[in-house]
# Entry
Amino acid sequence: MKNFTSPAWRIMLATITGILLASQSDAQTLTRKDADEIRVLARERVKGLNDLLNAIANEDLSNYERRYLMMNSYMPSNDQIFVNDGVIVEDDVDPKHKASAPGLDTPIEKYLSNFDLFYTKTETNTIEFTNLVVSDVKVDKYPFVKVFYTQHFKGKSNKDNTPYQPIARVAELRADKSGNDWIVYLTRLAFNSSDAARAVPVSPKPSATYDSLSRKKEPVVSQASDRKPVAKPEDAKEGERVFQELNKPNQAEIQNARKWGAIKLGVGVAALAFGAVTYSMLNKDYKDYKKRIDNPEGLTSYAKPGIYVSVGAMAVGLGVSLTSIFDFKRAKQ
# Structure
């Protein structure tokens, strides 16, 4: 029989107790409101990834514009959605890759470049994420959450014109507190599996360039070195094409106005729907909260900042929807 009063066992018991208390302390610092805000922001980040891929696959963008979007997605900028340039992605650009396998881990810069190179460009959006499910927020070294979704690449690979199949993916995200607000960034993209669902995310290691920009607290877009490439002959031809397009008869302007009117209307309706759904979820939680508490606080106090997110989304949706009216009017002129 082991002697549980020996010094060695006392040290081990004290160590285990300390770890448990520390973990409980970390968990207690994350309130329900914090968790709700993190989950809402995580869902929006994954939708932002969907928008990024559609933008890269849009044939109307120039090569420079696509490179600009890709770089700003993982470097310090107002458009950043990945935590840094060290993020690793399980490659799904090849239609043959449908599940986790050795050798698929790809740095985010290369992954986006491969996607730009091999995914067929179109005028309309061909990428859609559906069945988004956001996990509970957990705390390890930092709060993290996972978003499970079904990815639909409706375009084709230009390698061999092979169509893609819907695949199950999981996005891992970490949350950091900045003042009174939470900031959520993607840390990994992978094929969904039992191992991926259970795994604790590892914070990607950034490059020296990323660290330098972060310390300066300046976004990539404001760096003096971030200038457009020197014009090449092909760039000159592209400029001539754009000039000719701009000087086409008014029919082109009419079509463009209709196109942007439809895009703005779609974005506005989506924002309104998101705001309404978020508000409904918060209101439902608040009703449940009132039943359990004798002197409950008001809805605005209880549900902030989530309620501000929902109201803000509805306001933005309404504004964008209204601006689409002007585009449609211009198309009729």
Observations:
- The CA atoms of residues 173 and 186 lie 4 Å apart.
